[in-house]
Design a protein that fits this description.
- By secondary structure, this protein is of the alpha/beta class.
- It has 9 helices and 6 strands.
- Strands 3-2-1-4-5-6 form a 6-stranded parallel sheet, sandwiched between helices.
- The longest helix has 20 residues, at 41-60.
- 35% of the residues are buried.
- It comes from Flavivirga eckloniae.
- This is Noncanonical pyrimidine nucleotidase, YjjG family.
Length: 229
């Protein structure tokens, strides 16, 4: 069933349009080789991925700072695989990762198709918790920046999703209202509950088939947005 009265569509970026896991794995493979870090990449990523999610949750909840996230996730991952590494090397890898991550730009299936489809009838926007210096590069280098009228990130607002302030800032920037807007994202806590709490319509991009409230609209492929918009 189509959602009526929508003029503005807001997307999360990482894990929703931009395939973070695939691009991150490629970036790590490159920087570990560049820095002569001889570890099994699959073993490293097996530990790093959940550690990274844990640190992002702490960052989203304002319990750690940006630098704590960037250093801690790498330090903990190397500790988990039993690889001794100097603090200075971790800091260099942290910088290298931020530099190289936007060089890889795999998008989720049907990203261009659904953006072309929506662009004809809606104003499109981004709301992201990602770092400002990286997110704009991702949008530009993956050739999707031209679709979006506004881009709101947590660093420019000073709070992170699900804080209502970031959604209200994005709506103001878009010159829209919550009643006219829909949020599409992969994080049930940050994107879906955050947007729902200020009165926005929501569509959960749920590639892992999570069990959630039956009242939430769900898709597992972006092209399925045609059912709702």
């Amino acid at each position: 069933m189509k959602i009526e009265g929508i003029t503005d569509v807001f997307f999360d970026l990482d894990h929703t349009l931009w395939d973070f896991d695939k691009n991150s794995a490629l970036a790590f493979d490159r920087i570990l080789k560049l820095n002569n870090i001889n570890v099994d990449i699959d073993d490293f990523l097996h530990h790093y991925v959940p550690i990274n999610l844990k640190y992002w949750k702490l960052y989203r909840e304002e319990k750690i700072e940006k630098n704590d996230l960037r250093y801690g996730r790498l330090n903990d991952a190397f500790m988990a695989i039993g690889y001794e590494i100097e603090e200075a090397i971790i800091n260099k890898l942290s910088d290298d990762y931020i530099d190289h991550l936007p060089m890889f730009n795999y998008l989720f299936e049907n990203t261009f198709e659904i953006l072309d489809y929506l662009n004809d009838n809606y104003s499109l926007h981004i709301i992201t918790n990602g770092f400002d210096e990286v997110q704009h590069k991702k949008l530009t280098k993956s050739n999707i920046s031209g679709y979006f009228k506004t881009v709101t990130n947590s660093e420019m607002v000073g709070v992170k999703k699900p804080n209502p302030k970031i959604f209200k800032h994005a709506l103001q920037l878009a010159e829209s209202t919550s009643e006219q807007s829909v949020m599409i994202g992969d994080s049930y806590e940050a994107d879906i509950l955050g947007a729902k709490n200020i009165g926005m319509e929501v569509v959960f991009f749920d590639v892992h088939n999570t069990t959630i409230d039956d009242g939430i609209k769900k898709i597992n492929n972006l092209i399925q947005l045609k059912k709702y918009l």
